[in-house]
Amino acid sequence: MRGENWLVFVVLLFIFEICCLHIMGNDIYSMSSIPQPSAEFPIVLFNRLNYQTSSQNDYTRLKEEEYHVWSQTVGDEKREFRYRSIIVMPGRTLTFKAGFLSGNKFTSSVYNITNISNIHLWMFDNQDVGGSSGIWYTQWPHWEMNFALKLEPCPHCALPDCGNKTCYFGTCGISGECQCISGYSGENCTKRPTDLEKFPSIQYPLILFPQTYFQGTPKKLEPDTFEVFAQNSQSKLLYTYQSMRILFRRKVTFSRVDHNAEVEVPIGRDIEDIPLFMILNEHIGDELWINYSPTIELSFAVKIQDNPACTNCSNVGGSCFTGSCVCLPGYIGEYCDS
């Protein structure tokens, strides 16, 4: 009898997941304990189902117009998930994309999806996106593929309102609360990262890592200094650095080292997997030729823009998140050092 009761309990939990959490809708925006999207980062991706988090490592924030991988098919009917659920600003268009190793790509867009508690199940529920008329997610589980998503720009969408609250190292979320950028915390995002070696600073606004997901010994770079992150050698594309963190909203420039091509990202953000970023964001990778034949001997570099207005801003009492020096509570002066 106990076994039957346990089975009923499990079935009820499953139904709750499908019927309730899966269609939570706009109620998700009222949950202040869950990281929320903002105007600058209008989509939040979660490593776990149902937007569950225990630390900042469990989610990432995305800007508009940048493809980001959420799942991969790595073997015959074997899937790996980088992200399992998402929350999106309302009134936005979300584009899903599948990329094959052969170079073939499929895309499908959907409007005004505010949240998906289980992306995998959602694909089966929405065959116009996940099926053969979309990105083939549900149809070809035996092919090695990358599955990514991005949010289309929305210049006329309403902006969240946090009232008189200042978000020193973050942006205003749709819940009306400050949403801190990676490494920062606190009600007004005033607490700095504890591991300063792995996060950018005014002196070193770009940090490169030899492995994906910001792993390995970091290389700190000063502004306006190109550093080679990949090169074609012996008919192979080799990455010296595979992930990077940038300081706040600084402009990032990728370059082909023969200087015949440069691509600027006006408002940059951390990139956890540079190789996949280049493959999925063709407007950058193709322009650099990094996605083309590795038999062409080339090197590829990256730099971050300097901002003289931030040079002397205090690393203790100041915030230059917006591009100008703003004093944290308790600090005063032109550079917030008093």
Automatic annotation (TrEMBL):
Keywords: Membrane, Transmembrane, Transmembrane helix. InterPro entries: EGF. It comes from the Eukaryota. The chain crosses the membrane at residues 6-24. Residues 178-189 form the EGF-like domain. The keyword Transmembrane helix applies. This is EGF-like domain-containing protein. It comes from Stylophora pistillata. The lineage of its organism: Eukaryota, Metazoa, Cnidaria, Anthozoa, Hexacorallia.
